[in-house]
Specification:
Elements (H helix, E strand, L loop, with lengths): L2 H10 L8 H13 E7 L2 E8 L2 H15 L4 E6 L6 E7 L5 H7 L21 H15 E3 L8 E5 L2 H12 L6 E5 L2 E6 L2 H11 L2 H50 L8 H12 L5 H6 L7 H17 L1
Antiparallel strand pairs: 1-2, 2-4, 3-4, 5-6, 6-8, 7-8
Helix pairs in contact: 1-3, 1-5, 2-3, 2-5, 7-8, 8-11
Family: Belongs to the WhiA family.
Pfam families: HTH_WhiA (PF02650), LAGLIDADG_WhiA (PF14527), WhiA_N (PF10298)
InterPro entries: Homing_endonucl, Sporu_reg_WhiA_N_dom, Sporulation_regulator_WhiA, Sporulation_regulator_WhiA_C, WhiA_LAGLIDADG_dom
Length: about 300
């Protein structure tokens, strides 16, 4: 099961906070993944097509619980994608038009509602329930082991903006972007994704995100230290090669025996241990020498060669 499917399944099992929260959830489900067909004055048909069992289960359960309407349920299997497709149909029936008004899909004049009706999300808990329904219906949450991304695919720019504004009431700032024929209300901040999922009740999914963040933090720290160590080793190797080059020039010019004792000691140590850092090289001297002391001797050797 994908991480998105796990989130949707967890959200579909959340209990409503008040008697109107189920209505808000059902309204979001119908709006995000439903298709409304007009068959004449007062005659409609609402279809919800989904590949997610949580959507189908929630849609049918809440429709029967709240609207008391007849539903038709069809399961089809895609040969190409090898997945199940669920089709929930609310056929034309006496109380369907009233139900569509109640869900905020139609207004009282029979016109389509472009945004989110205030009566559906009038309570704070109902706003949360509506966002939860939108996530169940069209949400995508990337596996946190890869990257942090949450989005809800919707139709209609006015509705996308309204949904983004509704999520914004929770102190989260989503963005809206076009995805081919649809729009996406999306969040990329790990902290905002965590906060939104906590608000809508996906605590198990948030725990998985926290585990992934902790693992990423450990990996990043290990990588940082390894990269720093490799960089230090590279610099030390380059510096050692430069120092060996200085010593080679000294020998070519026949200056080794004329060098001050301190410089001869450095040359002997470096030739004996070409791979060591200055710090480790200094520890082998008798008495031990600091890194700065050895660096000073290298500088003296460079100046001597320049003057010769």
């Amino acid at each position: 099961m994908s991480f998105t499917a796990e989130v949707r399944d967890e959200l579909s099992r959340c209990e409503p906070a008040c008697g109107y929260c189920d209505l808000a959830t059902l309204a979001a489900l119908a709006r995000v993944c439903g298709t409304l067909t007009y068959a004449g004055p007062g005659r409609y048909r609402l279809q919800v097509a989904t590949e997610t069992g949580a959507v189908a289960r929630t849609m049918i359960g809440l429709t029967h619980k709240i609207l008391k309407l007849r539903t038709e349920f069809t399961v089809r299997r895609s040969v190409l994608h090898k997945v199940r497709n669920y089709l929930i149909t609310l056929p034309d029936q006496p109380d369907l038009e009233k139900a569509l008004v109640l869900l905020g899909i139609l207004d009282r004049s029979g016109s389509l509602v472009r945004g989110i009706p205030r009566h559906v999300v009038s309570r704070p808990c109902c706003r949360i329930a509506y966002i939860r329904g939108a996530l169940i219906a069209g949400g995508f949450v990337a596996d946190p082991r890869g990257g942090f991304h949450l989005e809800i695919a919707v139709q209609g720019e006015a509705y996308a903006r309204a949904l983004a504004e509704l999520i914004g009431t929770e102190g989260i700032r989503p963005r809206v972007n076009r995805r081919r024929s649809a729009l996406a209300v999306y969040i990329k901040s790990a902290d905002d994704i965590r906060r939104l999922l906590l608000d809508v009740g996906a605590r198990r999914s948030v725990a998985a995100i926290e585990d992934a963040r902790a693992m990423k933090s450990v990996k990043n720290e290990v990588n940082r230290r390894v990269n720093a160590e490799l960089a230090n080793q590279s610099r030390s190797a380059g510096a050692a090669q430069h120092q060996l080059g200085l010593i080679e020039r000294v020998d070519e010019m026949g200056l080794r025996d004329t060098l001050p004792r301190a410089l001869r000691v450095f040359c002997d140590l470096r030739e004996a241990h070409p791979d060591l850092s200055l710090r480790d090289l200094g520890n082998l001297a008798d008495p031990p020498l600091s890194k700065s002391a050895l660096y000073h001797r290298i500088t003296r050797l460079e100046r001597l060669l320049e003057q010769t």
